[in-house]
Design brief:
The structure holds 2 protein chains of 2 kinds. By secondary structure, chain A is mostly helical. Chain A has 3 helices and no strands. Chain A has a domain of about 80 residues. Chain B folds into 3 domains: about 55 residues; about 140 residues, Penicillin-binding protein 2a (Domain 2) (Alpha-Beta Complex), CATH 3.90.1310.10; about 325 residues, DD-peptidase/beta-lactamase superfamily (Beta-lactamase, 3-Layer(aba) Sandwich), CATH 3.40.710. In chain B, helix 11 packs across helix 14. In chain B, a hairpin with a 5-residue loop joins strand 6 and strand 7. The interface between A and B is medium-sized, with 20 and 29 residues.
């Protein structure tokens, strides 16, 4: 009763229907995921905004001054004196001293362990 | 309808009877007709019930529960200071509401809520939840963390509504500059209003104000310096028992306002008192007779006219008689004074004679040239229009010479002094501006020679004259005090003063102007002075000491005694 071509067509039809269904379902799932992510991004953005506001609230000079006042004795905090502010070039150069790290050993060793390679300048 | 239908059928049947007796009934089977009628009746009944129910629901009032319709608040850009510190921002807050009709167990709901909101009022909340109302607010402005925790509790009948709110982290520190928004998030004062006038309101109207596209507005304010200024004038107002105080820090090279504050002020996050009578931005919207600080302009004018030089001498031996008025000196020396002496002893007589040397028209023209008598052009909407006599007579010129008879705003005075230190008049701005941009619109007002002389006089006054209280070691401060008697009931009052101090630093190349004011200050302690040097001068000195390093002025001690070495 069924011819081969009928069977083939039915199979094609069934698989096409199955595929359409699968794609549609996948798309819906993806769409839901996108919505979820968008909601998440939105929340994160709001949180970032809030945290920024929080940060500026916590770093307010008025608040810091109050904190400095409270812990002044404990931490030994002092206002900066104008005398303490200088440019780097105003600082005196640190005197250069070359310390003798070998403790005099080098001179003795020098005779025995002299480098065998003779270069043009040293003879 | 059914009756009519049946009658019709019966009639048809009656008509039929005469022709085909019985056969029609037999053909349809007789009983079938009853069945059809029954079926029809049943279906009609069903549809009639549905229709009736629909009509019933249509007339029924809908359930009044649920939160009120949400208000769409327009997005606004953030306002940040010159270093990017936030001064104003939009934050989303969620508010907790309940629908008491849907609450199953009020006691349980409150107990659960109390685990997240410990400060909740049991009795009041219980009454709210039992009220049977459709909707009640429980707690406004929750943090996202609290919101998440309440959602976790899973209480039926409660929900959240998010609201956008303008938040000012700096609080009252920059209240007058940043300004306020109304409940619809529209700017109503300060820079908030300015931003709206720059096209933001149009953008919001057309619905294009997407919060992501709005770039933060960068002000010229430095929050750190602003705090120093605000802190100093707040303590200064209490210390000197003044009714008001204010200060401005202005960049001489760019005309930017780096800090400006006036107390008493308000908290923009809770501006319940922002409309009070004494809440006024005195620096730009307050008109005052500036007093002796105006002698800076008189002296500069005399020097710039070429008719007077630093070596000129003015007779201040006896009071000056003009009509019915007598001009006396506060710190009278009773001798002939040179121009620098007139300045540092703040001689009224000497200043009056300087003004007379220039003439009335020249005097008036000079003050207009310095922008002191015209309405200032700047971004801030709260700017007062200075007042001057309609017709200038000699007596006006004389009183104006020492700062009485014309009223102007302290900010304008600071701008004018900046012009004396620089030679160019620049409109003050609250937005970022570079020195080049400032020079494009700057107006040359006094010659370089006058600028050099004025710098010298300012430094000298802080060294030897009335401005000593504002000296800060290392920062080469120069300045001029001004103690003006306030007009009370049409007379100059002896007890009520308006004090100002204008300082410039560092004097070898002035970068910043600091102008402080104190309205009706009293002696700090009985027996101490109440002149400008002992209140406004001290505030200016403190502001410079604390902020100079932040303003990038390098301390230099090599110049410390230079001013005294220059002989005049």
């Amino acid at each position: 009763m069924f011819r081969t071509s009928d069977i083939v067509l039915i199979a094609v039809m069934v698989s096409a229907a199955a595929m359409t269904y699968a794609i549609k379902r996948d798309a819906e799932e993806e769409r839901a995921a996108v919505r979820r992510l968008q909601a998440q991004i939105h929340t994160e953005e709001d949180t970032i905004n809030l945290l920024k506001a929080d940060w500026s609230l916590l770093t307010q000079p008025a608040r810091l001054q109050a904190l400095v006042g409270r812990y002044q004795a404990q931490l030994g905090l002092e206002p900066v004196d104008p005398h303490q502010i200088v440019q780097i070039q105003d600082l005196p150069m640190k005197t250069l001293t070359i310390e003798d790290l070998t403790g005099g050993q080098m001179v003795e060793n020098d005779k025995h362990d002299r480098d065998q390679v003779v270069t043009g300048a040293v003879r | 309808m059914i009756g009519a239908f049946l009658k019709r059928r019966r009639n048809e049947a009656g008509d039929d009877r005469s022709i085909i007796v019985d056969s029609a009934r037999k053909a349809t089977g007789g009983r079938a007709r009853t069945r059809v009628l029954m079926t029809m009746a049943v279906f009609f009944g069903i549809y009639a019930t549905i229709a009736g129910r629909l009509v019933y629901f249509g007339f029924q009032d809908p359930d009044q529960s649920g939160p009120p319709a949400s208000r769409v608040t327009a997005a606004r850009p953030d306002i940040v200071d010159r270093n990017g510190e936030v001064l104003a921002t939009d934050i989303k807050t969620s508010s907790l509401y309940a629908e008491p009709r849907h609450i199953v167990d009020a006691d349980e709901a409150i107990e659960k809520l109390a685990t997240v909101l410990p400060e909740i009022d049991y009795e009041q909340t219980y009454r709210k939840l039992k009220s049977g109302a459709g909707f009640v607010w429980l707690q406004r402005q929750l943090t996202p963390k609290q919101q998440a925790e309440i959602l976790q509790l899973g209480i039926p009948g409660i929900g959240f509504r998010t609201e956008k709110r303008r938040f000012y982290p700096a609080g009252s520190t920059a209240a007058y500059i940043v300004g306020l928004t109304n409940i619809d998030n529209q700017g109503i004062s300060g820079m908030e209003k300015y931003i709206d006038s720059q096209g933001l309101s149009d953008l919001q109207m057309s619905g294009l104000a997407d919060p992501k596209d709005l770039k933060p507005v960068k002000l010229s304010i430095d929050l750190r310096v602003q705090h120093v200024v605000h802190d100093e004038i707040t303590t200064g107002m209490q210390r000197f028992h003044a009714i008001a105080a204010g200060a401005v820090v202005l960049s001489i090279k760019t005309g930017e306002v780096l800090a400006m504050a006036s107390v008493p002020d308000f908290d923009p996050n809770n501006p319940y008192n922002a409309q009070d009578k004494d809440r006024l931005n005195r620096m730009s919207a307050g008109l005052y007779e500036m007093g002796s600080t105006f002698k800076s302009f008189t002296t500069a004018m005399a020097l710039d006219s070429g008719k007077v030089s630093l070596e000129s001498r003015f007779d201040a031996t006896r009071p000056l008689q003009i009509g019915r008025q007598t001009i006396r000196d506060f710190h009278g020396k009773g001798r002939v004074l040179s121009v620098p002496e007139v300045f540092i002893f703040s001689s009224n007589i000497g200043s009056a004679r300087e003004a007379l040397a220039v003439g009335i028209d020249g005097h008036r023209e000079f003050l207009h040239r310095m922008g002191l008598l015209d309405r200032m052009e700047t971004e801030l909407p709260e700017v007062a229009r200075p007042t001057e006599p309609k017709v200038w007579k000699q007596v006006h010129s004389i009183t104006v010479a020492f700062g009485h008879g014309v009223s102007t705003t302290p900010l304008q005075t600071a701008v004018g002094c900046a012009a004396l230190m620089n030679g160019f008049l620049m409109e003050p701005t609250f937005l970022m501006r570079s020195a080049q941009e400032a020079m494009e619109t700057a107006k040359r007002v006094v010659s370089d020679k006058t600028v050099q002389s004025m710098r010298y006089l300012y430094a000298l006054n802080a060294e030897k004259g009335s401005g000593r209280n504002a000296r800060v070691p290392g920062y080469r401060v120069g300045g001029k005090t001004g103690t003006a008697e306030k007009v009370v009931n049409g007379r100059y009052s002896k007890g009520k003063n308006f004090n100002a101090y204008v300082a410039a630093f560092p004097m070898d190349d002035p970068q910043y102007i600091v102008l402080t004011i104190a309205d009706e200050p009293q002696p700090e302690k009985p027996g101490m002075g109440a002149t400008a040097a002992s209140n406004a001068g001290i505030m200016a000195g403190n502001i410079i000491r604390r902020s100079a390093a932040m303003l990038g002025v390098e301390p230099d001690f090599s110049h410390e005694n230079a001013a005294t070495l220059v002989s005049y």
